[in-house]
Write a structure and sequence with these properties.
CATH topology of one domain: Arc Repressor Mutant, subunit A
Largest sheet: 3 strands, antiparallel
Number of helices: 4
Strand content: 5-15%
Strand order of the largest sheet: 1-3-2
Order of helices and strands: HEHHEEH
Shape: elongated
CATH superfamily of one domain: Winged helix-like DNA-binding domain superfamily/Winged helix DNA-binding domain
Distance between the termini: 64 Å
């Protein structure tokens, strides 16, 4: 019975059997070449979709493409 409830919750959120296995912020950071803190900042800014399960954020690997092609570092300062 417990497994059936877990599967129905996963299906309702679009995760689980229908979707590939989600990755953690640590795995996403390794793939993007940034820190896990930066990945959480991208999630908080709305630039990287993720689902929070308990204290962990889970990310679809395909969504990493949204932030993979960004220039490294800070943008140049604007003279005022």
């Amino acid at each position: 019975m417990g497994r059936d409830r877990a599967e129905s919750r996963q299906g309702a959120q679009g995760w689980g059997r229908v979707m590939p296995t989600p990755i953690t912020t640590k795995d996403a950071a390794r793939r993007l070449g940034v820190t896990a803190i930066r990945v959480r900042q991208l999630i908080a800014a709305g630039r990287l979709p993720a689902v929070k399960i308990g204290r962990d954020w889970l990310i679809k690997a395909a969504d990493l493409r949204r932030v993979a092609h960004r220039p490294p570092g800070r943008p140049p300062a604007v003279d005022r």
